[in-house]
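A reminder from the course coordinator: this example appears on the midterm review sheet, so study it carefully.

Given structure:
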């Protein structure tokens, strides 16, 4: 389904952080959060979805049943809730939503935000289906996020932190790191990705205050990648240290994804409650798939349209949903400098468009802005054009993703460009538009 019937979708940034409402609502549906399997909780600005995907694939290839909760979705809302390895179907989702709706509408009414209500329904669904593990991604922040209602977790992961959602989480890395660290529980285990020093200090101090084990990238674990071989090194204590070799698919050669993989592997080999076989871990790595993260597109209607029009075999089409400066850096590090690069770009109005484009401007040969379709507000083309002109980025605008593809084809043909890179980026919602049309 596109959008659940409940709670009412109030549109862009229907956010009211806090845990009182969700706790009251959980009690009315018999506290499903107390009936869940072992849980991994993930917070951070970038890399949450990729880290979750690696973990899911690794544990599933080791024959464990895995629940997952992510947001936002790309095309269908159901993508957010995975029950024992399968995306929730409309019938069961509606059943859980109806049960939650009835409970919350009893006097006194509990008025949940859209994310709170759908999270409540997700926890109810998870409690009704058996699994060995739940991998839980925060929606925003951590400390006051609706997912942060579990007393005990197997482990927490803090992925890279950057400035984002400043109006809700704070305007400094330290403030945002504090909010993200709020998922850390007493006497638990924390894995921390590579961070800015200021953010790292906040996370480390939070873990110490909670008397939790703290393992961070670079100090307790790291990696070395050569061609198709990935060597993961870890040293958690005298009894848990070593080097493990894995094979890698081609799409995993981006530095940020290798770091995300390292954080997932650190948790896998530090924990002992769910034993893992190294060969099956390798299968999990090589079969992990996560859409719209510098994903190389090589099929579909829009892809074929480009291929037939320009009659080239070596052009590349990438899809990425990153929407902040750190994501722009990751995109820039992933593309080939020698190739002519055409960007198809859109962004939500509360994002740092100027910062994003400033980061990639030296890599942009031509940019086509387009507004995001459907119900999500989008930054206006004229606002993007104004920023591009300030940054001296060659650009035009289009009204849709299909129109932007047509503009890219015309530009390639008119300028006799051979084998370009076309990068669709700036928003997960734009990525969703492309996936739906492709």
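Designed residues:
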């Amino acid at each position: 389904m596109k959008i659940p019937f409940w709670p009412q979708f109030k549109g862009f940034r229907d956010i009211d952080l806090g845990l009182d409402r969700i706790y009251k609502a959980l009690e009315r549906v018999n506290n499903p959060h107390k009936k869940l399997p072992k849980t991994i909780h993930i917070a951070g600005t970038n890399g949450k979805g990729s880290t979750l995907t690696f973990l899911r694939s690794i544990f599933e290839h080791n024959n464990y049943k895995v629940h997952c909760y992510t947001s936002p979705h790309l095309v269908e809302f159901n993508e957010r809730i995975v029950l024992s390895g399968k995306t929730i179907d409309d019938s069961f989702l509606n059943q859980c939503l109806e049960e939650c709706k009835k409970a919350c509408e009893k006097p006194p009414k509990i008025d949940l935000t859209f994310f709170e209500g759908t999270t409540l329904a997700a926890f109810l669904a998870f409690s009704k289906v058996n699994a060995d593990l739940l991998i839980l991604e925060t929606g925003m922040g951590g400390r006051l996020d609706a997912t942060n209602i579990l007393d005990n977790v197997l482990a927490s992961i803090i992925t890279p932190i950057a400035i984002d959602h400043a109006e809700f989480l704070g305007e400094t890395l330290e403030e945002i790191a504090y909010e993200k660290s709020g998922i850390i529980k007493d006497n638990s285990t924390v894995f921390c990705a590579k961070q800015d020093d200021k953010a790292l200090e906040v996370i480390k101090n939070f873990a110490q205050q909670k008397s939790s084990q703290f393992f961070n990238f670079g100090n307790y674990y790291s990696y070395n990648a050569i061609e198709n071989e990935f060597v993961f090194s870890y040293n958690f204590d005298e009894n848990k240290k070593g080097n493990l070799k894995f094979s890698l698919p081609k799409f995993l050669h981006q530095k940020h994804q290798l770091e995300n993989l390292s954080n997932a592997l650190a948790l896998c080999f530090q924990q002992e409650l769910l034993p893992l076989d190294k060969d099956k871990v390798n299968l999990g790595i090589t079969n992990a798939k996560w859409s719209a993260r510098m994903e190389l597109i090589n099929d579909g209607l829009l892809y074929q349209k480009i291929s037939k029009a320009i009659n080239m075999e070596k052009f590349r089409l990438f899809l990425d949903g990153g929407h902040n400066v750190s994501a722009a850096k990751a995109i820039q590090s992933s593309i080939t400098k020698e190739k002519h690069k055409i960007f198809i770009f859109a962004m939500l109005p509360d994002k740092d468009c100027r910062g994003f484009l400033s980061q990639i401007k030296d890599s942009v040969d031509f940019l086509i802005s387009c507004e995001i379709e459907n119900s999500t507000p989008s930054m206006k083309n004229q606002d993007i054009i104004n920023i591009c002109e300030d940054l001296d980025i060659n650009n035009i605008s289009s009204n849709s993703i299909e129109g932007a593809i047509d503009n890219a084809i015309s530009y390639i043909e008119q300028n006799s460009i051979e084998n370009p890179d076309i990068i669709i980026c700036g928003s997960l919602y734009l990525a969703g538009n492309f996936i739906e049309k492709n």
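The two ends are 18 Å apart (CA to CA). The chain has 15 helices and 17 strands.
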